[in-house]
Amino acid sequence: MFNRLREDIHCVFDRDPAARNTFEILTTYPGLHAVMIHRVSHALWRRGFKWLARVLSNVARLFTGIEIHPGAVIGRRFFIDHGMGVVIGETAVIGDDCTLYHGVTLGGTSWQKGKRHPTLGRDVVVGAGAKVLGPIEIGDGARIGSNAVVVKAVRPGGTVVGVPGRVIERPADAASRRRADTAKRIGFDAYGAVRDAPDPVANAINRMLDHIHVMDRRMEAMSRALEEHGITRHFEHLHDLDGCGIDLALPDAPADDPQPAGDAPSGRRS
Length: 270
Fold this sequence. Notes:
Elements (H helix, E strand, L loop, with lengths): L1 H14 L6 H7 L1 H17 L3 H15 L2 E2 L4 E2 L4 E2 L6 E2 L4 E2 L4 E2 L4 E3 L11 E2 L4 E2 L4 E3 L3 E2 L4 E2 L4 E2 L8 E3 L4 E3 L5 H12 L14 H29 L42
């Protein structure tokens, strides 16, 4: 029992940078309190003291705002961050090293007896406000985004967002690789460059990256054509996109250098 408590405390240090010392965790973390009480109530439940187990779990809910049915099976190093509003149903199974944030529900979709709550594998993270419903399996290492509603099984390592929950992943097609490369060269983190991302901003960013790529190719072609005709002065000031900054201002022409044919007169912009 003390080994389990020691593991639970250490996992708080690993997953919450606000944790400062063991005494603070033992006295001020409702997620840890709820898990500690659940381990006792679950032992009572398995030994047939079901009423007493339910009373103890209700006491934990009163003081922590976290409702864990004593019949739920919870693995080692389970961490509930913040915790208020978390509900874990009777037949839920949670693997080792899982993390839940506030407002999470591991609930059922049926009034029938038997298995009706989800099963979480190892190292699953469920974001704030997410709802995982029904006797579904969430694979090892899966991530469920905040406020997602998940009613279908999730493969190991999958990331689920949206309502209803949809698995998103980075595809390996040429267009996505090109977008990621363009974003990297201009110093932008293309967080939205994923297939079927349910975010209109992500779609706009992808289109912007495609446009930048096309304009980059056209500028390169124009630069080469002008260099073939001996006109290179207007392109010497441009920095490589791999650099830290981009200077977009055109340099002023030297006073003793005649204007090349086709250039706009000094003081005017095309």
